[in-house]
UniProtKB/TrEMBL annotation:
The lineage of its organism: Eukaryota, Metazoa, Chordata, Craniata, Vertebrata. Coiled coil: none annotated. This is G-protein coupled receptors family 1 profile domain-containing protein. The chain crosses the membrane at residues 20-43, 55-75, 95-113, 182-205, 226-244. It comes from Chelydra serpentina (Snapping turtle). GO terms for molecular function: G protein-coupled ATP receptor activity; neurotransmitter receptor activity. GO terms for cellular component: plasma membrane. It comes from the Eukaryota.
Length: 356
């Protein structure tokens, strides 16, 4: 009876895995199209890049690189589950997955901190945030992400199972005592810390916006939408994946045969972990929503009056606001008089264009 139950559970789990490959292909098309279009838009249509665009461009590059590996992963899960591409591509696919994962958390955190400084401390950063600074931070971020992901090149190996070959995303049972501390470190440093920084940034942004009486309800809703997208990317994919991965590894360490999941314990947890992998891949499909919100914040908050061309965006990341004409001086027409007074409350409007 136990053998029959074990066979039924394994059959159920194999059926679940067989349904993953079409989902991965859909995610590939969405992620490739969305991130490729975002890169094209940044390169072709953004004449002057501010710091937010620099971080978003790197986030799009990270998503596009991983999207290119999804067809191999979909072919791997196509029944029967079998890796046909050799050990080098196995290591490369797992390395790209890790780089996208932690590149995503790093650049999302950079975007949230950039918005925090621009909205909560606008005077402090005015004229000091330049694209070259963001480019230097992005370069350091890529080196950090590559360093964090490098151990996957060692742990990811091929394992033969009957007539099929598995490409392990974690480690063999023998390497598990060394891999588990590494996985816990990635969860804390690569996911937990960025999430706390992003959460602090967005909470401070909401607090600042909601306390300003000169901001309309529509503008507050736009800020709330932007904050919701930023937090949802963590809650939907990054946090569940890291929690389930380490729970699954802990179960494997306590019970080595957990890699052959049973109905009583291993199957639900291992299936949830496999599902969380799909959610991580889904986040690169959601990044274009972040770019759309970013574009709205860049163009919608601060526009020039009708009939007047907008000047190029300064390197500091603050697009030009409404420019008011000055009447000539009553005695000397060459000397402009004082600027026309602003409408009540407009001078208190924060620089929302820095949301990017």
């Amino acid at each position: 009876m136990a053998a029959m139950g074990q066979g039924a559970c394994n059959a159920s789990f194999n059926e679940f895995q067989q349904q993953m490959w079409p989902v991965l292909m859909v995610e590939f098309f969405l992620a490739f199209a969305g991130n490729a279009f975002a890169i094209y838009h940044f390169v072709a249509h953004e004449r002057t890049w501010h710091t937010g665009i620099v971080y978003s461009f790197n986030l799009a590059v990270s998503g596009l690189l991983y999207a290119l590996s999804l067809p191999f992963l979909a072919a791997y899960y196509y029944p029967p589950k079998h890796w046909r591409y050799g050990p080098d591509l196995c290591k490369l696919e797992r390395f790209l997955f890790s780089c996208n994962l932690y590149g995503g958390t790093f650049f999302l955190t950079c975007i949230s901190l950039n918005r925090y400084l621009g909205i909560v401390h606008p005077l402090l950063v005015h004229g000091r945030q330049e694209p070259r600074h963001a480019a230097m931070v992005s370069g350091a971020g890529w080196l950090l992400v590559a360093g964090l992901s490098a151990p996957t090149l060692h742990f990811s190996v091929l394992q033969h199972k009957g007539n099929c070959t598995e490409c392990l995303g974690s480690a063999t049972d023998e390497q598990l005592p060394r891999y588990l501390p590494y996985s816990l470190f990635l969860a804390a440093f690569g996911c937990g810390l960025p999430f706390l920084l992003a959460l602090f940034s967005y909470a401070a942004i909401l607090r600042t916006v909601c306390r300003n009486p000169h901001i309309t309800r529509l503008e507050k809703r736009k800020v709330g939408r932007l904050v919701s997208v930023g937090v949802a990317l963590y809650v939907v994919s990054y946090l569940p994946y890291h929690a389930l991965r380490n729970l699954n590894l802990g179960q494997r360490q306590r019970c080595p045969q957990a890699r052959e999941p049973d109905c009583q314990g291993g199957l639900p947890l291992h299936s949830a972990y496999q599902l969380s992998k799909l959610l991580v891949s889904l986040n690169i499909c959601l990044h274009p929503l972040l770019y759309a919100t970013l574009a709205d914040s860049m163009r919608g908050w601060c526009r020039a009056p009708r009939g007047q061309d907008r000047a190029p965006t300064p390197a500091s990341g603050q697009p030009p606001c409404v420019t008011r004409s000055r009447a000539p001086h009553p005695r000397n027409p060459q000397i402009p008089a004082s600027p026309a007074p602003s409408p009540p409350g407009e001078e208190a409007r924060p620089p929302y264009a820095r949301l990017g």
